[in-house]
Every structure is written in C-alpha cells, then in structure tokens.
Amino acid sequence: MSNTRLVVLISGSGSNLQAIINACQSNQIKGEVVAVISNKDNAYGLTRAANAGINTRVLSHKTFATREDYDVELASLIDSFNPDLVVLAGFMRILSPDLVQKFNGKMLNIHPSLLPKYQGLNTHQRAIDAKDDVHGVSVHFVTEELDGGPVVLQAKVPILADDTADTLAQRVHEQEHIIYPLVVQWFSEHRLTMEADYAIFDDQPLPAQGATYPK
Ligand SMILES: Nc1nc2c(c(=O)[nH]1)N[C@@H](CN(C=O)c1ccc(C(=O)N[C@@H](CCC(=O)O)C(=O)O)cc1)CN2
Ligand SMILES: NCC(=O)N[C@@H]1O[C@H](COP(=O)([O-])[O-])[C@@H](O)[C@H]1O
C-alpha cells in the first residue's frame, strides 16, 4: 500500500499540522505531508513545515476579487501536489461549493466543538457563555455546509468553573492532537467512508495510540 499523500491547509500556529507531521514520521500515519498551504504569510505552521523539509506555499485571499476566484486558484494549487487527502488544520476560510465538490470524500476538517453544536467561530467562548459543562472537538468530512459534514470522531473536554476561552482551548488542543492523527491514520488505512455513520466517541479521552473504532 503506497504512502498516502497529504496536503495540509493552515492559517495559523499549525499545532495540528505538527501532530500530523509527527504521526507520519513515527509511521502511525502511513503517509507523508507533501505540501503545506497557508492563506497567511505569517502563519507559524509554515515554519513548522519548513523545519520538517516540507514544501510550503502562501496563497493570500486578499489578492483576489471574490471567494470563488481565490478558490479556483487554491484548487489548482492543491491539485498540483496530487493529494490523496486534503487536511484543513485551522484553515480559516470558508470554501466554495466547486472546491468542496472537487475534493468530496477526501477533505477533512477539525472543528473545536461537539458538532453540531457551535458551528463557525469563537466556539470556546460561546460554550462558556452558554454555561455548558462539556465542550470538545470534532473531526469531520468537509461539505458545502459549514462544519456540517459527516462527523468521524469526537472527543469531549469538560468545562471547568474557572475556565477562560484560552484555558479551555488548551485542553481541547490536547485532544485535537490525539484524534486528528488517528482519523488521518484511519483514512491512510482506507478505513473511512463519508457514507458510514461512525460512532461518536464518548466521555473518556482517546488512548494516545491505535484505537480501532471504524467498522
Ligand atoms: N465549505 C466549507 N468550508 C470550510 C469548512 C466546511 O466545513 N465547509 N470548515 C471550515 C473550518 N472552520 C471551522 O471549522 C471555519 C473557518 C472559517 C470560518 C469563517 O467564518 N471564515 C471567514 C474569515 C474568518 C477569518 O479570516 O478570520 C470567511 O471565510 O469569510 C468559519 C469556520 C473551513 N472551511
Ligand atoms: N473553525 C476552524 C477552527 O477554529 N479550527 C481550530 O483552529 C485551531 C488551529 O490550531 P493550530 O493552528 O494550532 O492547529 C484548532 O483549535 C482547530 O480546532
């Protein structure tokens, strides 16, 4: 089975990118990150990629008249690396239908909430403001509906009485760095399909290594 070719899209720090790079280097994921693309030239994730010897590209959305024009260029750039899987890792642009359709079934996103709760932005603060006692993270296939695609795996994170958005985000990040590599590993082992209705993982944080959940 050949290595899964991953193209990762970022906009910021790239800690999830780093988790995936690490998982590829440890052979947890039978794949390689062949390129990292950012819409922001100051994304620290670009430094992480360069340090790992990975191709990097910056495609700023600010130089395009419309979202659609940007996405035509972005789709072409992604395609140029011949990916098996496109991984959105803190990529902060809403993707237009044509691009989503082009990579249908081979584009994943990680979202910091227990979808379908809190689609969109500022999820940690929204959960705190709502006085929720649990928050978390979801890995899902990307569809036209923003953060509405089929969920593959979730991890729950309790909200503590003295939590701020930052302290909560830190604990959510810890679970992100476990479940995203795991889902990408499952994809690299050809064990995921958009049509399946995967179990939503409950309560306990995942073990760091190789749980086997998909059917
Ligand atoms: N068609 C889809 N596009 C994207 C999805 C998706 O599921 N379907 N997931 C998002 C990721 N995301 C949350 O997980 C998200 C990213 C960005 C935004 C957003 O409102 N972006 C604004 C700009 C915000 C900024 O620049 O800070 C915008 O694009 O106008 C919401 C949710 C990735 N895309
Ligand atoms: N709506 C998308 C979204 O908010 N994604 C979130 O952006 C962060 C990126 O962190 P990273 O750059 O350190 O991986 C992550 O917490 C991810 O869940």
From TrEMBL:
Belongs to the GART family. The active site is at residue 111. (6R)-10-formyltetrahydrofolate binds at residues 67, 92-95, 109. It catalyses: N(1)-(5-phospho-beta-D-ribosyl)glycinamide + (6R)-10-formyltetrahydrofolate = N(2)-formyl-N(1)-(5-phospho-beta-D-ribosyl)glycinamide + (6S)-5,6,7,8-tetrahydrofolate + H(+). HAMAP family: PurN. One of its GO terms (cellular component) is cytosol. Catalyzes the transfer of a formyl group from 10-formyltetrahydrofolate to 5-phospho-ribosyl-glycinamide (GAR), producing 5-phospho-ribosyl-N-formylglycinamide (FGAR) and tetrahydrofolate. InterPro entries: Formyl_transf_N (IPR002376), Formyl_transf_N_sf (IPR036477), GART (IPR004607), GART_AS (IPR001555). Residues 5-184 form the Formyl transferase N-terminal domain. This is Phosphoribosylglycinamide formyltransferase. It is an enzyme of class 2 (transferase). Pfam families: Formyl_trans_N. Its EC number is 2.1.2.2. GO terms for molecular function: phosphoribosylglycinamide formyltransferase activity. SUPFAM superfamilies: Formyltransferase. Pathway: Purine metabolism; IMP biosynthesis via de novo pathway; N(2)-formyl-N(1)-(5-phospho-D-ribosyl)glycinamide from N(1)-(5-phospho-D-ribosyl)glycinamide (10-formyl THF route): step 1/1. GO terms for biological process: 'de novo' IMP biosynthetic process.
